[in-house]
């Protein structure tokens, strides 16, 4: 068994979506002065690798802690694409059939920390979002900051059908040599619209390809 980390580090230098507060990690007691170390974390729940729930954009909808843990664990369908606008194709249609978790590997995580990351990232179309919904997908993940841009119609459409969105994944290219993959993207047990996650994949040591 091998574990592959799919999360960006969370620290004072973590990039933030334009307008969101920065992450601050501050020691509030010290071993030298107080005899014990305590650290305070102040952050937007949308910084770093995280998951969004429907109440991010809609009233009277589910929070993160309304979902069972098994929602966030499973065998993913990984779609590798370099298209700036990812539309529904027959190949994608066939690939996502009966998938619970679908991950889009665009390798755009290589731009993480640059201005382009939040302004020029790839997006998916509403027709592709429809196909994900029709296939019964429960979680869709991206190695980019968002599946869409303002006015966030894809976000809203997915949320309207109870599909969770994972953003800012990284290192998906490390999974390419493996066939049997189980991904874990488990949030905090928090009553909020989003949660930081530690995303990772469990694979066999032996590479089948």
UniProtKB/TrEMBL annotation:
InterPro entries: KFase/CYL, KFase_sf. GO terms for biological process: L-tryptophan catabolic process to kynurenine. GO terms for molecular function: arylformamidase activity. Gene3D superfamilies: Putative cyclase (3.50.30.50). It comes from the Bacteria. It holds the Pfam family Cyclase. This is Cyclase family protein. It comes from Erysipelothrix inopinata. The lineage of its organism: Bacteria, Bacillati, Bacillota, Erysipelotrichia, Erysipelotrichales.
């Amino acid at each position: 068994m091998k574990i592959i980390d799919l999360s960006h580090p969370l620290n004072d230098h973590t990039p933030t979506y334009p307008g969101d507060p920065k992450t601050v990690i501050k020691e509030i007691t010290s071993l030298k002065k107080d005899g014990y170390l305590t650290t305070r974390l102040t952050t937007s729940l949308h910084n770093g690798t995280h998951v969004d729930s429907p109440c991010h954009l809609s009233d009277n909808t589910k929070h993160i802690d309304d979902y069972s843990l098994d929602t966030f664990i499973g065998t993913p369908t990984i779609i590798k694409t370099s298209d700036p606008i990812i539309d529904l194709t027959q190949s994608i249609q066939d690939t996502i059939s009966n998938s619970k978790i679908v991950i889009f590997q665009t390798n755009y995580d290589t731009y993480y920390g640059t201005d382009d990351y939040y302004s020029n990232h790839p997006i998916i179309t509403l027709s592709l979002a429809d196909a994900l919904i029709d296939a019964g997908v429960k979680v869709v993940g991206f190695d980019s900051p968002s599946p869409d841009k303002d006015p966030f119609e894809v976000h809203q459409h997915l949320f309207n059908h109870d599909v969770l969105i994972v953003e800012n994944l990284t290192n998906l290219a490390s999974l390419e040599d493996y066939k049997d993959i189980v991904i874990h993207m488990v949030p905090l047990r928090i009553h909020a619209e989003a949660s930081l996650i530690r995303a990772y994949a469990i694979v066999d040591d032996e590479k089948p390809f």
